[in-house]
Sequence to fold (283 residues):
Amino acid sequence: MTAPGTTLVIGATGTTGSRTAARLAAAGHRVRAASRRAAPVPGAEAVRFDWYDETTHAAALEDADRLYLVPPVGDPDPAAVMLPFLERARAAGVRRAVLLSSSAVPEGGPAVGAVHAALRRGMVEEWAVLRPSWFMQNFTGSHPHADSIRESGTFMTAAGDGRIGFVDADDIAAVAVHALTDAHAPCTDLVLTGPEALSHDDIAAVLTRVAGRPVRHRRLTPAQLRDRLTAALPEEFAALLADMDRAIADGAEDRTTDTVHRVTGRPPHSFPAVAERELRRAD
Fold:
């Protein structure tokens, strides 16, 4: 592929999008930062973008030759809006797309798994699918877990004793930048984890030590979690998230990979290090 032109980062104010846009801009790449409010991002051109408003798509795609794709949040069928957009992007000259998916969603699986399958079938010339494990920032940023911890010192899951290779969003962004700008695109999916698999009780223990106050993991059944989530999310999506926790409890996410180290040349950050970095920064 020729030298990078403009990279359109969709979800540029989100957890991974903001970090990816910032890293690209800092490295001197031309970045168009897309969000629903066209919020400014240092070093990037801000543009309004809404998955559900096609009138925002053409301006976002102008002169872009690569995309960082964050699916619409909370949509159980993101392919319905993402695949037509990718067709339009290809026609507009986009040659490379990097999709944010999940370690829990295989190619052809539910939700964004259909977009993953379309990329492998050749939706664009060059591609990668990032399949990170659960974000470490879920406990330190703007996620409901983090909000609950700040408000009550507790967070709730239906994951039981299941362990997860939680990953730092900074590491996801570092891999995304390589996938977007390296001479050769991965043209595969990349499962991203941190250096160790931890249970939610382990997470609570680390947060208790770092924050200097008790943090407790409250255990729910999958049905209880689904019912709680349904108050804020579409029922189908709430059921999907509850089923993911059930799978975690059964060991589906108890793994680590060397992908971050292999792609970036450095080891992934540990959860204690990220908690220290982000909770100290917030104080």
Observations:
- The mean pLDDT is 95.
- The chain has eleven helices and eleven strands.
- The CA atoms of residues 126 and 276 lie 37 Å apart.
- The domain at 6-135+167-193+255-268 is CATH 3.40.50.720 (Rossmann fold).
